[in-house]
Structures are given as C-alpha cells and as structure tokens.
C-alpha cells in the first residue's frame, strides 16, 4: 500500500475533486502550514488534505471569547480536536492543490486551492506546528451504468436548480454548459446541492461513481419534491449564479 504524508486542513465543510476552495488563513497553525507550502517550487503542486470535521472546532477558542475567564485557551496544532484528532475527523478527505498562496502584510494568507483526488486518513500527527496525516489514495471506480445515471442526475439537477430559483424559465448555468463526464457530474452536483455536511461526506466517500450518482438521484428527487410544496426558501438567490469547476 502506497501512503503519502500531507499537511491536514480540517474544515466544517466537504471539498470535492475539481471544486475550488478559497481560504482566509489567520490561525497560526494554518499560517505555519502555508509558509511551509510556499517553500515548494512554483512548478510543483502545493498539496494539503482538506478533511471535514466530525467533532470539534475549525477555529480554536481564544481567550477573549472563552466562557470561563479563568480557563486557559486551547492552543497548538490539535486545538479544538481533543486528545485523539483522528477521531474528530471523517476518514475520507480530499487533496487540495494551492494554486495561489498570497501572504498579506499582517501575516495572514489568502489561498485559492482546487480539490484533486480523494484520500483515506490512516493516522494524524500533532507533533509539529500543524497537523499532518498519513493518507492512502482512493481510486475512482466508475461502477455500473455511470453514463446513464449521469444523464438522469443532470436532468434532475436542472429541475432542482429551477425550483430553488423560483422555477424561472431561464437557464441557471448561463455562460457555461454542465459537464457530461460521470465522475465530474457526480462531484459537481454533490458540491452544488444544499445538503448538510454528513450527507456531503457520504457522497464524497461513495465506493464508486455510479453509487454516488444513484444516491444523488434519490436526493435530488426528494429535495425537489419538498421544495415544490414550500412557499419560500432562505437564501435561494445563492443558486442563481453559474456553477463552475474553476
């Protein structure tokens, strides 16, 4: 088994391959990670793993906001994730390639990364200035009937978008056609749907593309049926912009 050790960036969200992740990096542990990534030559990928948090806090508590004024704030690379960080995270993560890492004058960073491939977390190391993880790459198996399923998912996804946007007749993907490659479709739809983190995580770690598409088809039909009977939806305007893999 081939394993790779990667810097680990826990978030309260799920990153999918092919999707863009903008980050505002201000905590010292993640700033240290970005300073290390900047040492990588520009013609090589600056890779780190993004993992969804199962139990814990994305940002460590700081002294001014602590409920107990006598408490000592939790610090260090594993702050907010308990004594065994591996248990605080979901087991399947997504590798991100930081195409842009820009340090601001105050030492914080503006980062633009893109999800690339899935990995399974085998262990987490908190001995350094930031978390690292030993990871095992996960192959993307297409499964059975992925092409036909992708077509069905795209049809259902367009209906879902229209319902969210108030059933407008115009296309909600103005200026960009939706892809037709099954793997890309499966990740794009998983990222674009308004789902909770556990459900998105379930889609990320699906055993193959066809299984993910089948799950999405059920979710799209169920969500569209619910939306049809709701008088209004909060923040529906967020669905009116074009969806992009860039």
UniProtKB/TrEMBL annotation:
Cite the Lon N-terminal domain residue spans from the record: 6-224
Q: Where are the transmembrane segments?
A: none
Pfam families in the cross-refs: LON_substr_bdg (PF02190)
Gene3D superfamilies in UniProt:
1.20.58.1480, LON domain-like
Q: Give the top-rank taxon of the lineage listed in the UniProt record for this protein.
A: Bacteria
Originating species:
Streptomyces atrovirens
Quote the protein name from its UniProt record: LON peptidase substrate-binding domain-containing protein
Q: Which InterPro entries does the record cross-reference, listed alphabetically?
A: Lon_prtase_N (IPR003111), Lon_prtase_N_sf (IPR046336), PUA-like_sf (IPR015947)
């Amino acid at each position: 088994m081939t394993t790779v050790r990667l810097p680990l960036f826990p978030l309260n969200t799920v990153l999918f391959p092919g999707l863009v992740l903008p980050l505002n990096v201000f905590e010292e542990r993640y700033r240290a990670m970005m300073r290390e990534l900047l040492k990588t030559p520009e013609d090589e990928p600056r890779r780190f793993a993004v993992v969804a948090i199962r139990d814990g806090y994305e940002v460590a508590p700081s002294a001014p906001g602590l409920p107990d004024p006598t408490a000592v704030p939790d610090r260090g690379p594993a702050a907010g994730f308990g004594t065994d960080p591996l248990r605080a995270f979901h087991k399947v993560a997504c590798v991100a390639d930081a195409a842009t890492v820009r340090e601001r004058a105050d030492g914080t960073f503006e980062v633009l990364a893109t999800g690339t491939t899935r990995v399974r977390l085998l262990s987490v190391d908190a001995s350094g200035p930031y978390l690292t993880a030993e990871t095992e790459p996960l192959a993307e198996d297409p499964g059975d009937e992925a092409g036909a399923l992708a077509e069905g998912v795209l049809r259902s996804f367009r209906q879902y978008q229209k319902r969210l946007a108030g059933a407008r007749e115009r296309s909600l993907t103005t200026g960009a056609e939706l892809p037709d490659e099954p793997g890309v479709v499966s990740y794009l739809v998983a990222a674009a749907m308004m789902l909770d983190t556990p459900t998105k995580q379930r889609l990320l770690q699906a055993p193959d593309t066809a299984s993910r598409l089948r799950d999405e088809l059920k979710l799209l039909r169920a969500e569209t049926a619910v939306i049809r009977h709701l008088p209004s939806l909060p923040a529906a305007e967020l669905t009116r912009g074009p969806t992009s893999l860039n």
